[in-house]
Amino acid sequence: MCTLEKRGNLFILTFTGEDQHRFNPNLIGSLLSLLSQVKAEATRGSALITQAQGKFFSNGFDLDWAQAAGSEQGAAERLHHMVALFKPVTAALLSLPMPTVAAITGHAAAAGFLLALSHDYLIMRKDRGVLYMSEVDIALTIPDYFNALFREKIGDASVRRDLLLRGLKMKGDEAEKRGVVEAAYDGEAEVREASVRLAENLGKRKWNGEVYAEIRKGLYPQLSAILGLTHKAYTIARL
Amino acid sequence: MCSLEKRGNLFILILTGQNGEHRLNPNLFSSIISALSRAKTESTRGSALVTVSHGKFFCNGFDLDWVNAAGSDEETQQRFNLLLDYLKQLVLAFISLPMPTIAAVNGHAAAGGVVLALCHDYVLMRRHRSVLYMIDLDLGIKIPEPFMALFRAKIWGSARRDLLLRGLKIKGEEALKMGIVEAVYDGEEEVTNSGIEMADDLAKRNWHGEFYVEIRKGLYSELCDILGIASKAIATPKL
């Protein structure tokens, strides 16, 4: 499951338990609801950290649940359903009125990697855990908003190719070097501490959350359009 | 104000006045746009333009004193909107200039000043005593199109986020690493002279301006679509 905790100005979203934190409709629903709560309680100086317990950040969609439909058609429908359900989660993160940090202490694959990449900053472990787009290996295609996110967040075409078309399992130090994550650290505690430090430093700037979200959306216009997020009309606050 | 000097094939645009901050107000904007118009009219094969400034600042953004001197809140907003319109015209003029362009950033550039620098094909910067600072987030001001499109055209990956969504004062070496600038130099004289030298080298290629500008527009197609100046195909009579 996932929980939300408030620590000073920080919102901390945690995937609890030692399982793979796979996204099924229940977990996706929880996530969406908690993100709504974060948005409602946002103030200047807020920041979000998303983290997980155990060996996984998240291993993506719950394919077991999809297959439990009993037929190939049923499984495909369930998978499509989850892809559609997950889109608002990406939209919520992209429009969240505060800086966001993903503290990646375990494997992040497919939709799990997507969730991480939907944050402004990614902090990862160097010694354990990989980023992995498994779709090419398990014969699934990549949804449009996944593609848009990768295209607009990862500037280097060869990195995008390696992640999406090559099924590369990218470890922390490579991810840091190639600009996929902000920083990588040895050890779970270091990642969590660094994430808190970063989130706190960003929070200290006391940015106007609405302005922050608008600028963020402007960085990723194709993704914003696919997610149905519009740019709000321009105004000045104070000069 | 600004002055335009012709030196052989080179146009040298010099920002002057406004207490050394070279802040953008209707006078300076008109002055620059006029100068660019003149350069366009007098351009030939092998022309090039370099923009230089002197002192502590390259350009410190909009003249907010002028904006705030307005009689009412409504007029303040109008003045600000006017400067935005001018800035848009400036971007248009630079993107349509039929010759290579270089900005020799001798000092600090903030907000509109960063936009001015990035309007050029190449940006050279001083290593020390010079920062690029998109102050907008810190002031709680959203960054409208087409300026976001200009940033998206020229800056990719996490550098985009770091320039626009992090309130960083980016020094020369950092700007170089982020791919925002081409090269860094010690000292104002060195960056100015290097700008002129680079302009000379590019001028020696003897490019046809009308082709150069169409290729430039094709490179920055999203920006040009938003500016309403999509590139057109021109066939050359001989190859």
TrEMBL record, chain A:
<dbReference type="InterPro" id="IPR001753">
    <property type="entry name" value="Enoyl-CoA_hydra/iso"/>
</dbReference>
<dbReference type="Pfam" id="PF00378">
    <property type="entry name" value="ECH_1"/>
</dbReference>
<dbReference type="InterPro" id="IPR029045">
    <property type="entry name" value="ClpP/crotonase-like_dom_sf"/>
</dbReference>
<protein>
    <recommendedName>
        <fullName>Enoyl-CoA delta isomerase 2, peroxisomal-like</fullName>
    </recommendedName>
</protein>
TrEMBL record, chain B:
<dbReference type="InterPro" id="IPR001753">
    <property type="entry name" value="Enoyl-CoA_hydra/iso"/>
</dbReference>
<protein>
    <recommendedName>
        <fullName>Enoyl-CoA delta isomerase 2, peroxisomal-like</fullName>
    </recommendedName>
</protein>
<dbReference type="Pfam" id="PF00378">
    <property type="entry name" value="ECH_1"/>
</dbReference>
<dbReference type="InterPro" id="IPR029045">
    <property type="entry name" value="ClpP/crotonase-like_dom_sf"/>
</dbReference>
